[in-house]
Amino acid sequence: MIAYPGREGAHSAAACAALFPDEEPLPLPSFRAVADAVSAREVEYGVLPIESSLVGPVNETHDLLWDSPLSIVGQVVLPIRHLLLAAKELAMDDVRVVYSHPVALDQCRELLARLPNATVIAMPTTVEAAKHVAESGADREAAIASDRAAELYRLTVLEADVGDHPEALTRFVSIATWTRVDRNGISFRTAFSFVTDHRPGALHRALGPFARHGIDLLQLVSRPIPQSAWRYRFDAVLAGHPLDDEVHATLAEVRAMTRRLVVFGSYPE
Question: What are the pLDDT digits (tens) for 49-61?
Fold first, then answer.
């Protein structure tokens, strides 16, 4: 069984079907619920969004990986189409509340700028936003969600393609309680996180081994460390597999000069 956040009609449901077309999906109410279900081995895999081509990392997924024993074992990249939906026909100027997931809201900044009188309210998933609007039937409320959500909840499309870019993509990952060690001659990505000392040049020194060994860093972002005020970690993705000689040597060097290094998993490109 494969867990994903939301309900049928969520973008994560489409990713789940793409990654595991022959498996039974299990919708859960939140990202945390998916991570907890996988950690408890109530399901074999979970599927979560991890990166948007418009707004970058999905912070909630990054933080869940940091705080859990989970590893990334697969990925799929899907085009994302956002629609502005309401229970009935509504003039854009009359919209007073917009519901959606924070990442979707961040991907639709231009739309929200055209709705200056609307209050934005975050929801656990885009499909939960659509469901709320459909069931409340309240005037002047709208949701940003998928065309499948519009169909499922019989919502009116106020405006289609409301994302800031017509070619928005989201990377979804499958997570499990084990780590892949197979390579099979294909290209891999490796996700990891590290914490440096608070002293001048610490990050520069930690990045040095990647340059010396010719390892391509595909992503590098900083995130606050939970329960540790003003302390930060660096989440990164490199091109390669930890069993590759150069990658193995690089990670060993970085581990020796950082306070902590955690590998979040390796998965095919």
Answer: 999 998 899 999 9
By three-state DSSP, how is residue 239 classified?
A: strand
Confidence (pTM): 0.88
Write down the CATH superfamily of domain 188-268. ACT domain (3.30.70.260)
User: What is the pLDDT, as a whole number, of residue 173?
Assistant: 98
| Nearest-angstrom CA–CA distance, 249 and 256 | 11
Cα–Cα distance measured from residue 175 to residue 267, given in angstroms and rounded to the nearest whole number:
10
- Per-residue pLDDT tens over the stretch 7-16: 888 899 999 9
Structural class in CATH, domain 83-159 = alpha beta
Residues involved in catalysis: 170, 172
Q: What tokens does 197 get?
A: 């000392």
The residue assigned the tokens 């509504």 is: 90
Residue with tokens 């936003």: 129
| Closest listed residue to residue 236, CA positions, set 252, 221, 214 | 221
- CATH 3.40.190.10 residue ranges for the chain: 2-80+168-176, 83-159
- pLDDT band at residue 167 using 50, 70 and 90 as cut-offs: confident
How far is the C-alpha of 98 from the C-alpha of 86, rounded, in Å?
Answer: 9
